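Hello,

Following up on my earlier ticket. Below are the two sequence lines again, exactly as submitted.
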Amino acid sequence: MLDTEATLEIQELVAEFKPGNADLLPALHKVQHRYGYVPKEAMGVVAKQLRLGEAHVYGAVTFYSEFRQIPPPKTRVDWCSGPACRLKGGEHVRRALEATLEIGMEENTEGDKLGLHLAQCNGTCDFAPQIWVDGKVVGPLTAAETIRLARELKDGAG
Amino acid sequence: MLRGFEELRSQADGVWQATQSRTVIRVPIATCSIAAGARETLEALREGVKERGFDVGVQAVGERGLCWLEPLIEVVKPDGSAILYENVTADKVEKLLDEAIDGVCADLAFAVAEGPDVEGVQRLDDFDLWALQDRRLLARCGIIDPENADHYIAHGGYSGLVNALELSQEEVIKTVEDSTLRGRSGSAFPTGTKWEFLRSKEREPKYLICNADEGDPGAFVNRILMECDPQSVIEGMAIAAHATGASYAFIYLREEYPLAIERMEKAVEQARERGLLGEDILGSGLSFDMKVWVGAGSYVCGEESGLLASMDDARGMPRIRPPFPADAGVFRQPTNVNNVESYADVTLIMQKGLEFYNSVGIEGNRSTKIFSLSGHIQRVCVVEVAFGYPLRDLYHAVDPATYQERRKLKALQAGAALAGILPTHLALKLPLDPDAFKEHGVLMGGGGLVFIDDTACIVDMNVMFSWFLEDESCGRCTTCHGGTQRMVEIFRRIGSGGGRSNDYDKMQMLGKALQYSNCIHGSASPTIMLKSAEFFREEIDEHIIERRCRAQVCRDMIRYEITGDSDKLLEAAAICPTEAVVQTDEKWSIDQARCIRCNACKDVAPDDVRIVDALTDVLPLAVAEARAAG
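Thanks for your patience. The regenerated structure is below:
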């Protein structure tokens, strides 16, 4: 692989990590923290740094639901898939979100303005059913409230 | 006394006393209270106090676990009297500052925590959901600043480590064995025995792992401990290091808990600064350090060998055992894995002694357990109760109004996706004792209790949990990834009206086959399915035979219909995301081909829209077949 400017930057970013030191996930976290996702070039750099096969690194990136392979949206909407939300109408919220934003889970709207992510329960169940807009808990939501919010987000982002 | 600990403690006492010399407003900053707006409240309080020139401290603390009251602010006066104020969002801060500093703000007051009675305000100790608790592990939550190790030390912190360091390794392990402490994650394996496995290994270095990958949906027990009293977990790990000879530890923490990660990292750093981690801790000869290791969203990494694989091999695929972690754990070195709460329990044992620890609880399960309660209840909360506490009493305290309403509790789902589900009539008879749950073939689990009322559908719950288990299956063994996939297919088919009379046989067969999975993720995955078939047969039968969902939840079994003609339908038409609410010749109807059953039209026009069964009038082959077979 050629050392482009981008890969040199990633090399520097992960220089502290060592082979055989349980460092693969920490390295990927650091990459994602910087770029918002794990770019394809980064997998090669991390593999080289940790003396692993590139497929091995790719395997890890795809195994975990929190590693992204596409750039993050400007506004991220997390839909909580936990049981308390489901019991209180979380599915209505999901249908409302997907229909209004016209995307499915783990997808971005055009130009990466908005993105949907299926999130796991974080225990703020007092606000069920809920979504997190850029990490901030919004709930409890009816489907109608979700649609209004999603339309606002869409207009705001447009 | 060990070298330097007295100085540490007197310095910590000084720091704590200084905060108590004037009126202090405690604002809980933790995930639940932040969701309720506590950060904005904190900011508004700081500004308000400054503007008014009050000599009042504003202190960020942990939360008490009474989530529905958040932000739950406490005003503590220099004389020690303290009053709690409920739901103090930023817009109520002015009022609070107007009234609560010199007197009592009666409108916002929730309870008197300390000091003389106040007319018209209950005492916290008389409040049912507080009175039934035995707060030991949570004793400091909501009182101290979790980002200040001195606050912890001033409240007895690290005295447990000091006590442990004065004992031999064998004596510490004996104490833990005598406490009968069993793993709090739900595994219920004796902690002392696990430690002895590690202690007896000669190969070095040895490692400790704190399993903080609390992935059970509906469980947030460990999160509260890590966010609100992180040092108690670190102290427990340091005690374990002394007892087992481990020299380094990893706290495997899920990425979904960003605040817990931040707090644990800060706590480790502060412990290190004070010489409570590092080389030759307090001159005892013990050298031990740790770091926080962040997961990336995988449920199966909560399984201990999946966790180890996640660190070593990158993909968190559970390993075949033996070898067990004590022989070949992280880096294939001897390793001990305990849960967050288990380490906190060790701290409690060493701080307060066995006599205190054993003074509550039941035979075989002494002391307390923390539970997180959610679902169809009024009071979402985290509580700590003695083992054996009656579940019925706890339920009444978290949902006092149920009896006045038409809602009826249907089921309890304890311990999340792998543990099972029980109908109310059995669940509410149980004490909070893992062994009592086992008698019904389910697990009490790590502390998540999800209450389910009759607005929920049991088939839908199975679709949710089986999909979760399928999605989180690591994919190594076909038994598990294929088996969980079959569960999803069966329940989706039943939920969409394609149930077959032999589906129960299929479930039984699948349940048996899944026992041959590599790890507990696969072998326990059919529990909810099998328990549902056992206890909720009537409701599943309705889906299969009558093609009807009594809770009107299963999407393909219901249809939305317009029954009214009020102006609200204009609003319904506007809100519908698929333009399915249509008007032709002044008559409203729903275009069934477009409708996605999101319920938005019914949200805005509840009296004009109703849900009806969609499939009951069609007699499918499956029903004819089922009826012919009797």
